[in-house]
Amino acid sequence: xxxxxxxxxxxxxxxxxxxxxxxxxxxxxxxxxxxxxxxxxxxxxxxxxxxxxxxxxxxxxxxxxxxxxxxxxxxxxxxxxxxxxxxxxxxxxxxxxxxxxxxxxxxxxxxxxxxxxxxxxxxxxxxxxxxxxxxxxxxxxxxxxxxxxxxxxxxxxxxxxxxxxxxxxxxxxxxxxxxxxxxxxxxxxxxxxxxxxxxxxxxxxxxxxxxxxxxxxxxxxxxxxxxxxxxxxxxx
Length: 236
Prior knowledge:
Elements: H1 4-7, E1 9-13, H2 17-29, E2 33-37, H3 40-49, E3 54-57, H4 66-76, E4 82-86, H5 91-99, E5 104-107, H6 112-129, E6 138-141, E7 144-147, E8 152-154, E9 159-161, H7 164-175, E10 180-181, H8 183-189, H9 201-213, E11 223-226, E12 230-233
Parallel strand pairs: 1-2, 1-3, 3-4, 4-5
Antiparallel strand pairs: 6-7, 7-8, 8-9, 10-12, 11-12
């Protein structure tokens, strides 16, 4: 019986030939089935005609860039894990990538082992996300209603569609309702990365979730910060 990696199909969208060849070799060696696209137009055609478990893409691509592709993918496949891999290191680019629906963001140059760790974590999250039985497919708190199957949320402000990673973060907080969830716990159990990894990703996600669900994000009542400890979720 094949392991999960051997069952996982990865679309690699990268126009830098040497990097793409090296990544394809290493990912294949790890047991993944890799399909490569050198520009956004080819990638879009592959996405529309084949099924994948995870997409890795550069931002700077011919025809459609990584941001445009992410937005297109999110419209049709809200649960598809997307990892942006790019040389653009500014906070503005990182925030934009996460806001339009990327699940993770890794800047070049990077260590292969870190990339493999991110991939394994994303695939684990995808599998975990599919199990919604613990809290049911629909969860309500305050004036908010989250459908974890469609990722569509209705709030007092608007109707939105969460990214898979946003859904994973709020789901983890809900599953630990009333308990203090540390940043370390979120990194290790939602991102599946060591808590020693320096990242502001957790803070960015918490901030976005508050904008969605809190009447006044500066004075949260559902997702509270516990100074020096982490976050605590309340549904009333």
